[in-house]
């Protein structure tokens, strides 16, 4: 079976149908297998499972990668957002501004500490939080704002910092999709008082299970995160606060130490793939690529386009063997979990319009030129 009119380099040939996965974690692991095995054996040999030397080593290396003084390894990205909020001073009863267009974990973390998420709309072209929407959403209880560097593209931090400072809000970055992205040359994770990263397996830097980190340049905030992630424990039998069991496993830290040195190259490969997609899709009728802001270097955790009849296009892509995703089909203000907040359809038009049209195409560092060409050909076919 072939897609009519597409070529494999021999003009006129049909492209042979192939399977293009959305991400390919097996392929990445293949090349790292020996190093993973060595890391695993070293940890097991010493039975160093929690708070071990690999954790400290990874924290130092990741802090350096993010241009921060501190990185604290935690159990997931969701817990990283929670602890980053706590360390920024957010308390039960506070309001915290979060985008309606993000993964639900951003808002869940706010709810987990007894604060209330207050949603704001996004910019339609990028899907990123609209800084102009923040001011009108501020209440007397608002203490923080969480910019989410969605798909790996940093939010307009200067505009956000201006409104945050006007209203006295702490900035807590959700950098769970943005390991290595930069804003005006400054790394994501170093742009607020605290920041959260996820090491969920499919992330740009993924563990072999769940994991996360909080980064900060504020020593007091770092201390707060260290305290809360480990049962509020000050020393062996003294618990200063009621904390959590939110540690990053030492084994995961050892495996992340294997992967971290590759992250810059992997991000460069993602950028190359995105540039390739961009130029293949630019100006194509029926496809809108995600706008890229000036002064940022995105790391393309996801490559998202907008199309009409998204569900139909997605199904036809699937029939051609191309996996795709939707990030995210239901904005947070209309999620059943947040029904009690009283939002309704129509409140955030840009997020709602995007949700109907967005489609995430295969994106991972190892994606080949042939795979990308096939995705583009299949998309063109699916649009007709
Ligand atoms: C924007 C965003 N925030 C938070 C999270 C939560 O991370 P985790 O799945 O590691 O808890 C994710 C990851 O899925 C995410 O994409």
Structural notes for this entry:
The protein has 384 residues and is of the alpha/beta class. Helices cover 37% and strands 16% of the residues. It has twelve helices and 17 strands. The strands form five sheets. It has a seven-stranded mixed sheet, with helices on both faces. Strand 8 and strand 9 form a beta hairpin. The longest helix has 22 residues. The chain is globular. The chain starts with a strand and ends with a helix. Bound molecules: pyridoxal-5'-phosphate. Pyridoxal-5'-phosphate binds next to helix 3 and helix 4.
Radius of gyration: 21 Å
- Tally of DSSP helical segments: 12
* Major sheet description: 7 strands, mixed
Spatial order of the strands forming the largest sheet = 3-11-10-7-6-4-5
- Report the average pLDDT across residues: 95
Q: Give the bound compounds.
A: pyridoxal-5'-phosphate
End-to-end Cα distance? 18 Å
* Global shape: globular
Give the number of DSSP strands.
Answer: 17
Work out the strand percent: 15-25%
Show unreliable segments. Answer: 4-13
Structural class, judged by helices and strands?
alpha/beta
Helix coverage percent of residues?
Answer: 25-40%
SSE ordering: EEHHEHEHEHEHEEEEEHEEHHEEEHHEH
What's this, in brief?
α2 packs across α8, α3 (77-87) packs across α7 (219-229) and α9 (263-281) runs parallel beside α12 (369-383). The chain is an alpha/beta fold and 384 residues long. It has helices at 25-46, 53-65, 77-87, 105-112, 134-137, 157-167, 219-229, 250-259, 263-281, 310-319, 349-357, 369-383; strands at 2-3, 15-16, 70-74, 95-99, 116-120, 142-145, 170-174, 182-183, 186-187, 194-198, 212-216, 233-235, 238-239, 287-289, 296-297, 303-307, 358-361.
